[in-house]
Amino acid sequence: HRGNRYPDAAIGALTYRDSPDNGHQGFLYSPAGYIDEYRATQTPLLLVSGWADGAYQLGALRKYRSRPAHTWVVIGPWSHGPGAVTDPCAGSLAFRGRRSDLTIPFFNRFLKGEANGFDEAPPIRYYTYCANEWKYAHSWPPEGSMKRFSFGSLGTLVPQLSREETAVELPYDDLATSGGATRWVSLVDWRRKTRYADRADQAEHGVGFSSQPMADDVTISGSPVISLSLEALSKDAAVFAYLEDVAPDGSVTYITEGQLRLLHRATTDRLYDGYSPVRSFSEGTARELIPGERYEVSFGLYPISYRFAAGHRLQVTLTRADADNFLPIGPSGEGSLLIFIGGASGSRIQLPIEANGRPIWERSAPQPGKDKR
């Protein structure tokens, strides 16, 4: 395999999705390049991913949405490596059963023709972090509602929109990071366990917005969408957004994230179906920022299912970098962003709140002496 190319190294040198690499356009490597052919197939498909499996859980759900028939999805408390459980609350059911428990019934049904009922169950099965529950869903996101939280003054996150508009500066800080054992590292080093450290120290490297303590448990299941009203002082920049859980003791738990290089802010509805704004990332749609001009930009955070406990606070942290996982944008990352809050188009996040009473999926217990991965 000495002659093989390393995709992570090659992709780092590409600015656009359709940039040529080794004589080929990058888009042709993606299943999205064959979306029409994919929608026309009827081949049974089982998509297994994890909430910390890079961005593969988003890819699995987009494939399901693009062709719901003959498609089943399982998303568990995993990263990309085998046996890597990533539930920050370490629920006992996160460790239950083997991954083959998920795949063998599928193959037995469609390769052996066994009438085992696999295709009669709801098409989506997923684990909820910090709830210690596996659940079924007939569609994604599961039944519930979207709830808006606006960025408020003094670093608050509030349900109502403030009438007064203000701006906060988001400078570039190359000490901002999500750590060295992340969902992204698991894609290239599966032997390293995915672990996110307490993020309380990251507030000083970005801008944070926190809600009041919640009166009741709240579960989010789906793709949060963040909308920013911003002004740039440079021609290009990246924005990283983190959804976090702040415990009563002040510790901060990573939940999910999203990021966008603002050169690629243009959206499209001519590709696959998405749960959040879809972009082509192509050279033809790229547009440099005009310093001093104001922009309204929305992008999705990676899908997640997570239960916030009563007494905990929601928090959104914005940064301009993730030093351990992403290359900086520009020669030195100079140039601040202004984030506008309040007013008619103030910055905000929409969260998919799951309805109570979701059907529980009782996964089988591991058999004695068997691999529990």
Brief sketch in words of this structure:
This protein is mainly β and 373 residues long. 10% of the residues lie in helices and 29% in strands. It is globular and about 65 Å long.
Structure description:
With 373 residues, this protein is mainly β. 10% of the residues lie in helices and 29% in strands. It is built from five helices and 19 strands. The protein has helices at residues 7-11, 35-40, 56-66, 100-110, 185-188, and strands at 20-21, 24-25, 45-50, 71-76, 124-128, 133-137, 144-152, 156-158, 166-170, 207-210, 218-222, 225-232, 238-246, 252-261, 294-300, 304-308, 313-319, 337-341, 348-354. Strands 7, 8, 9, 12, 15, 18 and 19 form a seven-stranded antiparallel β-sheet that branches. A four-stranded mixed β-sheet has the order 3-4-5-6, with helices on both faces. Strands 10-17-13-14 form a four-stranded antiparallel β-sheet, with no helix packed on it. α3 (56-66) links the parallel β3 and β4. The radius of gyration is 21 Å and the shape is globular. Mean pLDDT is 88; it is low at 365-373.
List keywords for this structure.
7-stranded antiparallel sheet, disordered C terminus, 4-stranded mixed sheet, 29% strand, 373 residues, globular, single chain, mainly beta
